[in-house]
Specification:
Helix content is 31%, strand content 17%. The protein is α/β, with parallel strands linked by helices and 428 residues long. Helix 1 crosses helix 12, helix 6 crosses helix 7 and helix 12 runs parallel beside helix 13. Pfam families: Glyco_hydro_18.
C-alpha cells in the first residue's frame, strides 16, 4: 500500500501541474459524487482466471459505484439471451474463488458469475450491477430488434424477463431477481460499422432513441411494482462520424441515467505507425488531422446537446502495442513492423503486465500537456494509462464537470487495483 501511495502522490503532482491553471467548473458537482463504473467480463473466469472474488479482495469494489457485467447478446430472434449459461449461472465456484469465501454446493438456487455478483453486492450495499447488452460481438441483430414498435417491445420484455426479473433458463421463476439493478446498452454501433456482418440501417439513429424510450418505460413500470429505481445507461462511441450516424444526442439523455463514452482505441495496431490510443488531447506532431482524443470526443457529445453530468469518460486498463519500430526519438509516431506480442492477443496487453516492463529495459515517456504515456525499449512500443495518467484524467473529469469515469476492464488491473484506486481517489 505504501508503494501505491507514493505512486499516487506522484501522479497527483503530475496531473495537478497540468490542470492547476484550468478554471473551476461553472457549476460544482451537486453532491460531489461521481459515477465510477467498471466492466467485469463473463469470459475472464476462464483463461485469465479472473474472478469477482479478485475484484473484492483487491479493494476495487469499494471504489466503484457501478459494476457492468459484459455481455448479454441480442439473438437473431430479437430477444435477450445468455452467451454462456455455464459462466453466468451454472459453474460452481470454490471457496477460494467465491466472494464470500464459501464454496458453491449442489442444490443451491443458482451459481456462476450471477451468484458472485449477488455476493459482492451483499458486501457492498451501495454498489449497483448492470447487465451490458451487446458488445462488439453481440450487436449483430440489434438493428433488427429495434426496427419496429413490436420488435422493440419484444426485445425489452425478454431482457427484463431474463436479467432483471431473474427468470434463468431451466430454473425456478424469479430465482435471480435482484442481481441486476439495470441495463447498459452496448449497441456497437447503430447506423455505422462495428463487427463484420452486423446489420446496419440508416434508421438505426432514430430507432436507438425509440429503443431507449422502450427500455425506460418498461423499467419504470417494473420499478413501480418493485418500488425500485432501475438504471438505464449506454456505451457510446468516440468517432464524430459514428455519433452523427447513430445517435439523436439531444433526445437520448431523456431516457439514460448516463452514457459511458469510449475513451480508447483511438489508434492501434491496425495502423502501421505507433500512436496514442487514449490521450486526453491530441499530441503535438500527430500525423492525423483531425485526430481523436478524449477531449475532442467529449466536446463532440456536448456540442450535440449531451448534458455534461451524464457523460462518463471511459479509460483503458489495457494497451495497444507495436514492435519492429524504426525511425528516431522516443518511438512515438514512428513506422512499425506490426503488433507487439501479447499474453492473450498480439497488439494488446494488460496494465498488470506492462507495469513490469520498466524493470526489463523499457523507458516510461509522458506527454504531460496532452495526457498520455507510453513505454519504449528501442524496438517495442506500448501506449498505455498508468496511475498517474488516471489521476490526470480524474482531474480533467472534475474540471470539465463530467459525471465520472468508466473502466474497461477490471481484469487488466493489478492485484492491488492500482488503476481503480487512482481514478477513484481523483474523483472523491
Amino acid at each position: 500500500m505504501r508503494g501505491f501511495t507514493r505512486r499516487l502522490v506522484a501522479g497527483v503532482a503530475v496531473a495537478s501541474a497540468v490542470v492547476a491553471a484550468a478554471p473551476a467548473p461553472a457549476q460544482a458537482h451537486p453532491d460531489d459524487s461521481y459515477a465510477k463504473v467498471a466492466y467485469f467480463t463473463q469470459w475472464g473466469i476462464y483463461g485469465r482466471n479472473f474472478q469477482l472474488a479478485d475484484v473484492q479482495s483487491s479493494g476495487a469494489t469499494a471504489r466503484l459505484t457501478h459494476l457492468n457485467y459484459a455481455f448479454g447478446p441480442v439473438t437473431a430472434d430479437g430477444v435477450c439471451a445468455s452467451a454462456d449459461p455455464w459462466a453466468d449461472w451454472q459453474t460452481p465456484f470454490s471457496a477460494e474463488n467465491s466472494v464470500d469465501g464459501v464454496a458453491d454446493v449442489a442444490g443451491q438456487p443458482f451459481a456462476g458469475n450471477l451468484n458472485q455478483i449477488a455476493e459482492i453486492k451483499a458486501k457492498n450495499p451501495k454498489l449497483k450491477a448492470l447487465i451490458s447488452l451487446g458488445g462488439w460481438s453481440g450487436s449483430k441483430y440489434f438493428s433488427d430488434a429495434a426496427l419496429t414498435d413490436a420488435s422493440r417491445k419484444k426485445l425489452v420484455s425478454s431482457c427484463l424477463d431474463l436479467w432483471i426479473k431473474g427468470n434463468l433458463t431451466g430454473l425456478p421463476e424469479g430465482v435471480a431477481a435482484g442481481v441486476f439493478d439495470g441495463v447498459d446498452l452496448d449497441w456497437e454501433w447503430p447506423g455505422s460499422a462495428g463487427e463484420v456482418g452486423n446489420v446496419i440501417r440508416p434508421e438505426d439513429k432514430q430507432n436507438f432513441t425509440l429503443l431507449a424510450a422502450e427500455f425506460r418505460a418498461q423499467l419504470d413500470k417494473l420499478g413501480k411494482v418493485n418500488r425500485k429505481k432501475y438504471l438505464l445507461t449506454a456505451f457510446v462511441p468516440a468517432a464524430p462520424a459514428k455519433i452523427t450516424a447513430g445517435f439523436e444526442v439531444n433526445k437520448i439523455f431523456k431516457y439514460l441515467d448516463f452514457a459511458t463514452v469510449q475513451g480508447y482505441d483511438f489508434h492501434g495496431t491496425w495502423e502501421p505507425v505507433t500512436n496514442q490510443q487514449s490521450a486526453l488531447r491530441v499530441p503535438a506532431g500527430a500525423p492525423d488531422n483531425p485526430d481523436f482524443s478524449a477531449e475532442n470526443t467529449i466536446n463532440a457529445w456536448i456540442a450535440g446537446g449531451a448534458p455534461k453530468r451524464k457523460l462518463v469518460l471511459g479509460v483503458p486498463y489495457y494497451s495497444q502495442g507495436w514492435t519492429g519500430v524504426t525511425g528516431t526519438g522516443n518511438g512515438l509516431f514512428q513506422p512499425a513492423a506490426g503488433p507487439a506480442p501479447g499474453v492473450f492477443a498480439n497488439g494488446t496487453e494488460d496494465w498488470k503486465t506492462l507495469k513490469k516492463l520498466p524493470a526489463q529495459g523499457f523507458t516510461v515517456h509522458r506527454d504531460l500537456r496532452n495526457g498520455h504515456a507510453w513505454l519504449f525499449d528501442g524496438t517495442t512500443f506500448w501506449t498505455y494509462d498508468d496511475p498517474a495518467v488516471m489521476v490526470q484524467k480524474a482531474l480533467y473529469i472534475r474540471v470539465k464537470g463530467l459525471g465520472g469515469a468508466m473502466m474497461w476492464s477490471l481484469d487488466g488491473d493489478d492485484e492491488n487495483a492500482s488503476l481503480t484506486k487512482a481514478i477513484s481517489a481523483g474523483l472523491r
